[in-house]
């Protein structure tokens, strides 16, 4: 018997009566099983349920219309499976379950307050006027109270809103911690060595503290890569663990995160060995969790490893046109790359040539590094430096540079040799890919020039 069990004691009316209807908050409430809680909002530890009790009273005046519906704002995230509504008429007998609905809007009361929905109980003629009726809300979990007005419909009259200071305690949204994780996992190549940098940020974006937070990052290495030891894990509670072949994890206990608190995590993983050219993709999965919340993020940094091969060829075309062909090719599964090379052409004593095309490369005299002009006589002995700084080499393809010149004359009888030597091949963008080499260098090509004299009698 709800009313008598609490001794008929109530707090003051939250609002004055309207149209013969009063809404009250009892000073105590009867719980399932008959126990009495000295609070209209009560968390029962054994069941982990929160109870809210309200009392509605209508007088017997001729002008009073019977209550047809009550509406109590509750947290918008609550569902019907979270709530049981029980009713006790005139404080006699047990509380019995009654049907209810949840809706963010009502045709009479309008939109529910932001963050709330209406819990509505239709009376459907279960009682008339001149009665007091208790409603007890039983909600799963620890539900905080907030203050919102309570609404009542009577007859065909528009809804009555009971809104007074400090009233009414209604079910708010439970305070929960929520883990959020962002990750930036990327490759840095320095001094032809790849390092995978991990920068993660964990935050508790919820409204409650989270305890026993644990972090774990799992790094999956593709075949062909060999990793070194993890460098500079921060915070220092992190430690590295070697798992299955090709798998490394970095993990640790972070302890408690308060609402809004940030926990930055950084570490580096050097790649010590690359067995063959190719494009290698790593799988980096970050996970942070505790008993009530979790977050996961995945990144896939990549490492391009390039191996090149070189060829240096020569030929003499008609009209004394000489050609040195320099070829740079991708080896194996090398991705597309931008190469650079350094080459030298040595003109022997007495030979005069005119260069007609450097094919986009830069040519300078070795003795003073001044530019070599086209279509201008150049006489040996002379060494020409040739630098190409942006040679685009396609995957499984070849790039070619043709250096052309015309042999004009030679002051020496006999055979002379113009030598072209490819000395260095490198990557033009060394911070983008790891370079595995370009085969044996230097690599030379030759053009032989033969001069002679003859006489005869006419």
Write the layout of secondary structure elements.
Layout: H1 2-5, E1 21-24, E2 29-30, E3 36-37, E4 41-44, E5 49-58, E6 67-75, E7 83-89, E8 96-97, E9 101-103, E10 105-106, E11 110-111, E12 116-122, E13 132-140, E14 145-147, E15 150-154, E16 157-162, E17 169-171, E18 179-190, E19 193-204, E20 210-220, E21 225-227, E22 231-234, E23 239-242, E24 247-257, E25 262-274, E26 278-281, E27 283-289, E28 294-299, E29 302-306, E30 308-317, E31 321-330, E32 337-347, E33 351-357, E34 362-365, E35 377-379, E36 382-393, E37 398-410, E38 414-427, E39 434-435, E40 443-451
Parallel strand pairs: 29-39
Antiparallel strand pairs: 1-5, 2-3, 4-5, 5-13, 6-12, 6-15, 7-8, 7-13, 9-12, 10-11, 14-17, 15-16, 18-19, 19-25, 20-24, 20-27, 21-25, 22-25, 23-24, 26-29, 27-28, 30-31, 31-37, 32-36, 32-38, 33-35, 33-37, 34-36, 38-40
Commentary on this structure:
It is a single chain. By secondary structure, the protein is an all-beta fold. The chain folds into 3 domains: 2-171, Sandwich (Immunoglobulin-like), CATH 2.60.40; 179-305, Agglutinin-like protein, N-terminal domain, N2 subdomain (Immunoglobulin-like, Sandwich), CATH 2.60.40.2430; 307-451, Immunoglobulin-like (Sandwich), CATH 2.60.40. Helix content is 1%, strand content 58%. The strands form 10 sheets. Strands 1, 4, 5, 7, 8 and 13 form a 6-stranded antiparallel beta sheet that branches. The radius of gyration is 43 Å and the shape is rod-shaped. The N and C termini lie far apart (148 Å). Residues 1-5, 7-13 and 452-458 have low confidence and may be disordered.
């Amino acid at each position: 018997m709800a009313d008598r069990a609490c001794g008929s004691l109530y707090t003051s009316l939250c609002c004055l009566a309207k149209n013969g209807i009063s809404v009250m908050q009892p000073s105590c409430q009867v719980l399932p099983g008959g126990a009495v809680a000295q609070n209209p909002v009560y968390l029962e530890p054994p069941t982990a349920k929160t109870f809210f009790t309200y009392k509605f009273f209508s007088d017997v005046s001729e002008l009073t219309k019977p209550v047809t519906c009550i509406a109590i704002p509750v947290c918008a995230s609550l569902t019907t499976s979270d709530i049981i509504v029980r009713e006790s008429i005139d404080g006699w007998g047990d509380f019995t379950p009654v049907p209810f609905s949840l809706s963010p809007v009502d045709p009479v009361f309008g939109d529910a307050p932001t963050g709330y929905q209406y819990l509505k109980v239709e009376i459907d003629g279960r009682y008339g006027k001149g009665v007091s009726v208790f409603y007890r809300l039983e909600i799963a979990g620890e539900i905080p109270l907030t203050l919102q007005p309570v609404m009542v419909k009577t007859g065909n009259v528009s809804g009555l809103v009971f809104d007074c200071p400090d009233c009414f305690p209604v079910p708010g949204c439970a305070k929960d911690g929520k883990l959020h994780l962002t990750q930036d996992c990327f490759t840095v190549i320095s001094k032809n060595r790849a390092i995978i940098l991990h920068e993660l940020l964990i935050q508790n974006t919820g409204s409650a503290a989270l305890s026993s937070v644990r972090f774990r990052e799992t790094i999956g290495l593709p075949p062909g890569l060999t990793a070194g030891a993890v460098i500079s894990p921060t915070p220092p509670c992190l430690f590295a663990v070697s798992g299955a072949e090709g798998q490394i994890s970095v993990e640790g206990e972070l302890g408690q995160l308060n609402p809004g608190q940030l926990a930055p995590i950084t570490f580096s993983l050097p790649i010590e060995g690359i067995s063959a050219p190719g494009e290698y993709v790593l799988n980096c999965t970050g996970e942070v969790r505790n008993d009530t919340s979790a977050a996961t993020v995945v990144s896939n940094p990549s490492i391009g490893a390039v191996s090149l091969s070189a060829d240096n060829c020569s030929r003499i075309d008609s009209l004394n046109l000489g050609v040195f062909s320099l070829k740079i090719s991708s080896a194996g599964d090398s991705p597309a790359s931008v190469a650079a090379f350094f080459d030298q052409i040595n003109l022997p004593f007495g030979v005069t040539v005119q260069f007609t095309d450097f094919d986009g490369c830069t040519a300078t005299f070795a003795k003073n590094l001044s530019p070599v002009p086209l279509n201008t006589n150049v006489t040996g002995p002379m060494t020409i430096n040739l630098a190409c700084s942006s040679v685009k080499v396609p995957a499984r393809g070849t790039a070619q540079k043709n250096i052309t010149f015309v042999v004009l004359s030679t002051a020496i009888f006999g055979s002379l040799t113009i030598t072209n030597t490819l000395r260095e091949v490198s990557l033009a963008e060394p911070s983008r890919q790891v370079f595995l080499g370009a085969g044996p260098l230097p690599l030379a090509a030759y053009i032989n020039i033969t001069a002679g004299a003859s006489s005869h009698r006419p």
